Every structure is written in structure tokens, then in C-alpha cells.
Amino acid sequence: MSLIDLIILGIVSEKPQSAYDIQKDVEYHHLDRWTKISTPSIYKKVITLKEKNYLTTDVVKNGKFAEKSIYSITNKGIEYFQELMEKYSEQEITIPINFNVVISNLNKMSKPKALELINKIRDNIIKAQGNNKKYTELYSDIPLTGRTIFKQQAALYSSLLDWMSEFETEFLKDLKNGE
């Protein structure tokens, strides 16, 4: 069971698509920002899902273009999709944040370098916040379920910036007391 299965089955449940179209749908919805999914993993998973009878394939030829496989979800695939939806909605929520490893090692850096790294992290949160705002405006016509993820991300970036300010104050105070 994987999130990639859930993503692919969710996309194909809306309408039959080629692996290329699935990959474009993933890019359009920026799903790679929220989960680890890559173009090769999509193509590999589509084949695996077909082998497990969660998807069927129709080969179509469109004029002068090469034949392509169009994938449709099967009844077994719908059941598996629903099982995955249940599984992932029941899991403990974790929010992996890649810069936490840097934060946990700041006390091993010189004070100026540690502060520089804190500023870099803050700058990147601000950049991500700006990108999220841009995407929110650019894709304002997407369904509520997509728009709400942009809202969630906005709230997280805002909270992270508040946390960064508090952390930096405490870090500086801690450094001052350690001197």
C-alpha cells in the first residue's frame, strides 16, 4: 500500500488517462510538493496497478500519433482506493520538515554561522509562503479539496514563521546564558 497508489487511483477514478496524462495531472495539482512522487514512480506504479487488476488498459491510436495505453480503474481498483483512503485517514499525523535536522545541530555551529542558517531557513519559509500564495491565486478555480490544501499550507507557513521568531529569541538567550 502506498500514497502513490492512492494518488494514481484517485486521478484515474475521475477519468481514464494515459500514464503521461497522470503524470501531468500530478504536476498540475502540485502533488509532488506534498508527497514523494516522481515521474518514474508513476509509470512503474501504473504498470504494477494494472498487473494487480486495479487498472485495465485500452490501447488507442490517435491519427498519426503513436499508440498509447489509456488506464481505467476496475471495481477491484475502486475497492482498493477506498481501502487506502480509510488507511491514510486513520494514521497518526506526522509533518516531516527537512530543516529540523539543521535545527537539531545548530548548537554545534559558531554563533554567527548558526544565526546565518536560521536566517536561511526563515528566508526559505518566506519563499515557500510566497509560492503558495502565487499558486493559490493561479489555481483559484480548482475544486475546494485542492484550494483547502493551499489554505492548510498557508497556515503552516505562518505558524512556522511565528515559531522561527520564538525559537531565534530563545536560541539567542540560551547562547547569551552559555557565555
From TrEMBL:
In terms of InterPro entries, this protein maps to: Metal_resp_DNA-bind_regulator (IPR052509), Tscrpt_reg_PadR_N (IPR005149), WH-like_DNA-bd_sf (IPR036388), WH_DNA-bd_sf (IPR036390)
UniProt protein name: Transcriptional regulator,PadR family
The residues covered by the Transcription regulator PadR N-terminal domain are: 8-82
Q: What is the lineage of its organism?
A: Bacteria, Bacillati, Bacillota, Clostridia, Monoglobales
**Gene3D superfamilies from the UniProt entry:** Winged helix-like DNA-binding domain superfamily/Winged helix DNA-binding domain
Q: Which residues cross the membrane?
A: none
The record's Pfam families line, in alphabetical order, gives:
PadR
Organism for this UniProt entry: Monoglobus pectinilyticus
**Source domain of life:** Bacteria
